[in-house]
Amino acid sequence: MACRLYVLAVLVETTVNLAIEGDLYLRIREVHPTGDDLATRRMPVYLGVFVLAQCVAYYYYYHLT
User: Fold this and answer.
1) Is residue 36 over pLDDT 80?
2) Is the dihedral of CA 52, 55, 61, 64 positive or negative?
3) Of residues 31 and 12, which shows the higher confidence score?
4) What share of the chain is helix, strand, coil (3-state, %, to 5)?
């Protein structure tokens, strides 16, 4: 039961984090629609690193338990 609760908590946290990152990305795109700003070009990289980190965490969690 505790394991399922932990997995549910991680999934909820991941969903909230992705929603926040997506919102930040859209706000930056609204401020700089041309995409020439350095922050605008870096945001997709930050999102990619975040998603990759979540995938690695899930991989290790499911393969080590």
Assistant:
1) no
2) negative
3) 12
4) 90, 0, 10
Radius of gyration for the alpha carbons in the chain, expressed in angstroms and rounded: 15
Average pLDDT on 24-53 reads: 73
Whether the pLDDT of residue 54 is over 70: the answer is: yes
**Would you state the torsion angle of the CA atoms of residues 12, 13, 14, 18, taken in this order, to the nearest 10 degrees?**
100
Q: Please choose, from the candidates 47, 49, 60, the residue with its C-alpha nearest in 3D space to the C-alpha of residue 10.
A: 60
Three-state DSSP at 34 gives: coil
Tokens of 21: 């990152």
The residue written with tokens 């965490």 in the block is 57
Give yes or no for a contact between 30 and 19, defined as CB atoms under 8 angstroms apart. Answer: no
How many Å apart are CA 53 and CA 58, to the nearest integer? Answer: 9
Q: What is the pTM of this model?
A: 0.53
